[in-house]
Design a protein that fits this description.
Elements (H helix, E strand, L loop, with lengths): L5 E10 L2 E8 L6 E6 L10 E6 L3 E5 L7 E6 L2 E6 L12 E2 L16 E4 L7 H9 L4 E4 L3 H6 L10 E4 L5 H7 L4 H13 L12 H12 L1 H15 L6 E4 L6 H12 L4 H14 L1 H12 L5 H11 L3 H15 L2 H7 L5 H11 L2
Parallel strand pairs: 9-12, 10-11, 10-12
Antiparallel strand pairs: 1-2, 2-5, 3-4, 3-6, 6-7, 8-9
């Protein structure tokens, strides 16, 4: 595929009615025409011309009531981009995984594959916005107890929900407590019981082991094979997948998809790490609440490690794939049983 003179583009929201669109061209200083529309297609036929410039950024009027996509055109070459993080009030980790560079200079299509934290606190304004993105399905990784505590707010009665439930020890540990005090008392008891296998400290060991277990456990492979079957059917798209925080179970599922699409290793890690940035304020608030319940430093360090998004957590899964199957691709082929034809179909569906 020929190189696009637009090397990279990004959209950042400045306010409720304005975004900043920035880009880099090679060579620099070329005239860039900018179009906007509600379709993620890399096409100008359904877009409205906004402006043209030789600069490398422009601030544009764009409200936060509906999903919008931007197409940049340079000398007949087009490049589509959008806000990665959706401007929602009740979900802070809802984002599009489009735009990542894959093999052969192709990019993941925008507007099809999304990831999020739970959807329980969506507001009326969020519902309006999400309707504009025309979702067809939700993949919910949470178990029945988690869902019972925080059921999703469904914004369209036609949405199909797939309950894809991997075994997740950290989720079980968090879900079984009725409140913060119960959770902390349970952790203190675990820390004092030298016969148990749970390390109550800030090492992140339990999160690394959970990600390794995602790979080791044959039943978990069957669960994530369900995800593969879901994305093989483009009638399920656009789709959002989520767990409680959108970090581990969702992070593992998205990492598998991006690996199949040929996205490079560092971009997969960067996408995973973005959860830590988006949930930082929430995590700090939760730590303040935990500190009101205990001054046990090991318990507090453990709780923080559970909320953190360390690259080492996802890397533990990748290491286990290499250990057991020779490579990440070996895991995809042998454990998830993704055939070459299926991989080619997935790439045809989700890469420009």
């Amino acid at each position: 595929m020929k190189n696009n003179p637009i090397v990279i583009a990004d959209v950042q929201r400045l306010s409720s009615d304005q975004v900043r669109l920035s880009w880099r061209t090679d060579p620099e200083g070329q005239t860039v025409k900018i179009y906007i529309g509600s379709s993620p297609a890399n096409s100008l036929t359904d877009k409205t011309f906004v402006t043209s410039t030789t600069e490398n950024q422009v601030d544009l009027a764009c409200d936060n009531h509906s999903r919008q996509y931007f197409v940049l055109e340079v000398a007949g070459n087009t490049y589509v981009t959008a806000e990665r993080v959706l401007p929602l009030e009740g979900a802070h980790n809802f984002r599009d995984v489009g735009g990542y560079l894959a093999e052969n200079n192709r990019r993941v299509k925008w507007g099809l594959l999304y990831r999020s934290d739970h959807l329980h606190n969506l507001t009326d304004k969020d519902v309006e916005y999400l309707r504009s993105a025309h979702f067809h399905s939700i993949v919910d990784y949470r178990n029945e107890k988690e869902y019972g505590k925080q059921p999703n707010r469904i914004w369209d009665n036609q949405l199909k929900t797939f309950n894809v439930i991997p075994d997740a020890s950290s989720a079980e540990l968090a879900a079984k407590a009725g409140n913060d005090n119960e959770k902390i008392m349970e952790l203190i008891n675990l820390s004092q019981n030298k016969d148990n296998n749970v390390r109550i400290d800030g090492s992140g060991y339990i999160m690394q082991e959970q990600n390794r277990d995602f790979v080791r456990n044959p039943e978990t492979a069957e669960v994530y094979r369900e995800l593969i079957d879901i994305i093989l059917d483009n009638q399920n798209m656009p789709m959002v997948q989520h767990c409680r925080g959108g970090k581990d179970r969702t992070g593992f599922g998205i990492a598998i998809i991006l690996a199949i699409l040929g996205v490079n290793h560092q971009s997969i890690l960067d996408d995973y790490a973005m959860t830590g940035t988006l949930r930082h304020a929430r995590n700090m608030r939760r730590m303040g609440e935990y500190k009101k319940e205990t001054d046990n430093l090991d318990v507090l360090a453990f709780l923080y490690s559970m909320m953190e998004t360390r690259n080492s957590y996802l890397e533990a899964a990748f290491d286990e794939m290499t250990k057991l199957y020779g490579s990440i691709n070996g895991y995809i082929e042998k454990a998830l049983k993704v055939t070459p034809l299926e991989k080619e179909k997935i790439r045809a569906l989700y890469l420009d």
